[in-house]
Amino acid sequence: MAQIPARPAFQFKDLGTWIAVALFWLFGQLPWNWQLACGRGLGRVSYYVLKRRRDIAAKNIELCFPHLSQEEQEALTRQTIISTGEALAEIAAAYINKRVDLPSRLTIEGLEHLEAAQQKGGVIMLGMHLNTIDAGCRLLGDGAKVPFSAVYRPNNNPILDWLIAWGRGRFVEKYIDRKDMRGLIRQLRAGNTVWYAPDQDYGREHSVFAPFFGVPTATITTTSRLAKMGKAAVVPTSHFRLPNGRYKIVFGPALENFPSGDDVVDATLINQVIEREVLKAPEQYLWVHRRFKTRPVGEERLY
């Protein structure tokens, strides 16, 4: 279990947040499939209420799936928002609901790829922002029994940061700030396994532009640096929600000739791997994130 930070002291100004945490805990007591059903209902309402996020998802889907008709794009956008509602419900379920037997709901594919890479040294589990990320964390640690550390970005709200660290930290060995490169490299050189997801827009610094679904995309080069400095293999790792509250974790073969020494070539390969996994369940990807916020010089903003 990771070292979980101490719970923040109560302050009256944070009363609203603590009430939300209490409701979150109560909601987490519901049976797993009930929570998912509530999440779908939340998603259906959010499609009409959260116009900003719906528009971001719609723009991303328009850019990445130009071959779909307008009606098909709209349908995928709606499915995405509903799936995101399920994901929000899953957070409470994954953190709180200890009664559910998640391992019995899990199918694992390609575990031999991860085990083969682990026998050679450190491993980067190449993660991606599929919206089953919190259920996936519990399933990896509690279901697949994979000992691993997770890279995270601290939340600006200390109460939410504590809640997330507590929820995820019970299923990982260490919880590593994404800015702690030395800590990451130490873990890899010690032969350990680290989950790391590079598929968000962090701006131009330490990024190159590589195609993602055919769109030039700011892609951080950290995966290549970690693999080189940590002497680690990179194993694609994805997780999907199946019907009836079941899940699947898929490990792919370790990337070959990685890093290549060319940041654009490496970033292109990373994006291709993520594309391949996203296409298995496109509605479960985090399309509500402004993935194409940073544009090449001279290009207009997309959002």
Could you explain how this protein is built, in words?
With 303 residues, the chain is of the alpha/beta class. The chain is 45% helix and 16% strand. The strands form two sheets. It has a seven-stranded mixed beta sheet, sandwiched between helices. The chain has a two-stranded antiparallel ribbon with strand order 6-7. Strand 8 (233-242) and strand 9 form a beta hairpin. Helix 2 (32-49) packs across helix 4, helix 3 (51-64) crosses helix 4 and helix 4 (70-96) crosses helix 7 (158-169). It is globular and about 50 Å long.
Sum up the structure in keywords:
303 residues, alpha/beta, 10 helices
Uncertain segments are none
Strand order, biggest sheet?
1-9-8-2-5-3-4
Number of helices: 10
How far apart are the termini? Answer: 40 Å
Map the helices and strands.
Blueprint lengths: L14 H13 L4 H18 L1 H14 L5 H27 L9 E4 L1 H8 L4 E4 L6 H11 L5 E4 L5 H12 L5 E3 L3 H9 L3 E4 L10 E6 L2 E6 L1 H8 L3 E10 L3 E6 L11 H16 L25
Parallel strand pairs: 1-9, 2-5, 2-8, 3-4, 3-5
Antiparallel strand pairs: 6-7, 8-9
Helix pairs in contact: 2-4, 3-4, 4-6, 4-7
Short description:
With about 300 residues, the chain is α/β, with parallel strands linked by helices.
